[in-house]
């Protein structure tokens, strides 16, 4: 995958994740009086901005959901279609619901079995009549799932506005970073030109550090500038800066309280938090939650440091408050802004609350061992995980009990055509067409016992043994049905655009609008591993008859032929001038048919058959309109379904229909 797209996806995921996380921390902060705990929680939110999603759980924190069990109205039984080995019917293909935004469909693998035909006999969009109604409407997606889907769709499909926003984001990051670095460089020169620190001030600092239990005291510098006393720098090289004019105005006791305040920042490691804020702000300078989080962190830090000073000087809280007021009065004359990665005395808007707490002698106890363990567990649970585990049944499954009178579908050997090519594909669901009547006989009793759901079935894929069925409807609902266990798994949130069942194996391969090619377990409906990834969305996928390779077609005209075990590209194929609508392996697995074309304009429409040994084109079939589906009738014959509703049988040797 393009590294830029990967970084952008991670940034958008984190930007969306911190919104509910910050809301939760805000609620906890209102219930918790401990400033140290509030500070830790807000730092956790800040960390989430820059923590990459390292892994995801195939489980979900369950939210209340309603089962999608509906009263089923049985359709009338269909009559069986007589088989004819010398006739291929041209069935009218359903038209897409919106030409500008096609509903992508599910595609099967090249399967050695035809048991899928009984399921493919279901009504499809365009020929099913009025969609059946159900007694209960489907559960609408939550706002969080809509927000996450919108964010990931932003990364999936490039467009001019997406490119403009991306470059605005990058430009803002560069401008903010350069401005901060320039400001820091100017301040560093000012510090370098400062006079040597008086020995008595350094001695006072060392003595205070020893009394406070610090192993190392920071170096003190006196600066000729109207700035707040601050801790500036990173790590052990941080320096304590004190303005010369303010040092001369204050007496020893008041000066000691301000020095103790900065030493408290040093002991707590707040200068490290400043570095984290710098990195997070450079990337998410536009995010309002970030600036709000920084404000909350600063307020909690100052309260913790004030409580620490009051604890060390229990007899002088009033003197410490007066020292803060003298500092504010000094800064009001000609104030200079704090440089990057600096911890000062805080902002004036918080001063009234701080002075009240100081005069009352309020202290903040440090985090207990239980609190630290709890925060650590929360950090491990929140920071590295993908956000969709918090939104309900997204990656997890929504198991739905099916009616008891829905038995597994099967086709008896007596119903199969003797002239059927058993090595050919079972069908072409992702092209929205059914197998020709010459290939398959349907069982009217099995078809009539199957329920219809809200919305028309747009496409269907069936496992070779007929146990598992994947459907996609015109409402973009994707479901995996286990006919043996009578359960259904909702996969609508997985961005699946095409699937292909493996021959004689309990798994299937799914292609997604995010460019992922993923291996899924059919038994439990969970992803096993990522096979490959492409920068653009994928529209079709197919598994080789041997089950060792996978092919996928992309919206940018590229075709991936990858090893299913390693994910490495087997045969590089040339890029086509239009989007790839369908890919299919030949029955012997040595050829790949690729249908390409724009289904809106119909231009650049063609079907190319490639030799997988060298990637060369064996045949190129020019089409009048965009081809939406291809299926090998044999190694030398190819069925092509066009978006104008026609189906053509091509002879690959003669290039004739």
TrEMBL record:
<keyword id="KW-0853">WD repeat</keyword>
<feature type="repeat" description="WD">
    <location>
        <begin position="489"/>
        <end position="521"/>
    </location>
</feature>
<dbReference type="Pfam" id="PF00400">
    <property type="entry name" value="WD40"/>
</dbReference>
<dbReference type="InterPro" id="IPR015943">
    <property type="entry name" value="WD40/YVTN_repeat-like_dom_sf"/>
</dbReference>
<feature type="transmembrane region" description="Helical">
    <location>
        <begin position="41"/>
        <end position="63"/>
    </location>
</feature>
<keyword id="KW-0812">Transmembrane</keyword>
<dbReference type="InterPro" id="IPR008756">
    <property type="entry name" value="Peptidase_M56"/>
</dbReference>
<feature type="region of interest" description="Disordered">
    <location>
        <begin position="401"/>
        <end position="459"/>
    </location>
</feature>
<dbReference type="Pfam" id="PF05569">
    <property type="entry name" value="Peptidase_M56"/>
</dbReference>
<feature type="transmembrane region" description="Helical">
    <location>
        <begin position="6"/>
        <end position="29"/>
    </location>
</feature>
<keyword id="KW-1133">Transmembrane helix</keyword>
<keyword id="KW-0472">Membrane</keyword>
<dbReference type="InterPro" id="IPR052173">
    <property type="entry name" value="Beta-lactam_resp_regulator"/>
</dbReference>
<protein>
    <recommendedName>
        <fullName>Peptidase M56 domain-containing protein</fullName>
    </recommendedName>
</protein>
<dbReference type="InterPro" id="IPR001680">
    <property type="entry name" value="WD40_rpt"/>
</dbReference>
<feature type="domain" description="Peptidase M56">
    <location>
        <begin position="164"/>
        <end position="332"/>
    </location>
</feature>
<dbReference type="InterPro" id="IPR036322">
    <property type="entry name" value="WD40_repeat_dom_sf"/>
</dbReference>
<feature type="region of interest" description="Disordered">
    <location>
        <begin position="70"/>
        <end position="89"/>
    </location>
</feature>
